[in-house]
């Protein structure tokens, strides 16, 4: 499912105009991005949690030349799946093709 499909699904599920559903989804995503950018944690019970992982700098290698380079420290978003979601996904039987 992509974002436009999510918007369409929301609009159909709650009988909501598609433009308003799009604005709602955009607002939720923007709020989550802003929260993570500020270094805060997001927890959605039954779904999972979003946080930031910090990585220290380290020495890497250029794959073409083999030259050592310093990789700068960085922060990346991280998702940890919730117990209910994990159990529900695990319980679904794969579809035979």
TrEMBL record:
It comes from the Bacteria. GO terms for molecular function: DNA binding; structural constituent of chromatin. Keywords: DNA-binding. The keyword Cytoplasm does not apply. One of its GO terms (cellular component) is cytosol. CDD domains: IHF_B (cd13836). Transmembrane segments: none annotated. Belongs to the bacterial histone-like protein family. PANTHER family: DNA-BINDING PROTEIN HU (PTHR33175), INTEGRATION HOST FACTOR SUBUNIT BETA (PTHR33175:SF5). This is Integration host factor subunit beta.
């Amino acid at each position: 499912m992509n974002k436009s499909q999510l918007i369409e699904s929301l609009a159909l599920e709650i009988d909501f105009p598609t433009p308003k559903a799009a604005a709602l989804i955009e607002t939720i995503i923007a709020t989550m991005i802003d929260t993570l950018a500020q270094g805060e944690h997001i927890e959605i019970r039954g779904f999972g949690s979003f946080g930031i992982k910090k990585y220290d700098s380290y020495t890497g290698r250029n794959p073409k030349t083999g030259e050592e380079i310093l990789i700068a420290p960085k922060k990346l978003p991280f998702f940890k799946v919730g117990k209910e979601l994990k159990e529900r996904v695990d319980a679904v039987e794969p579809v035979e093709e």
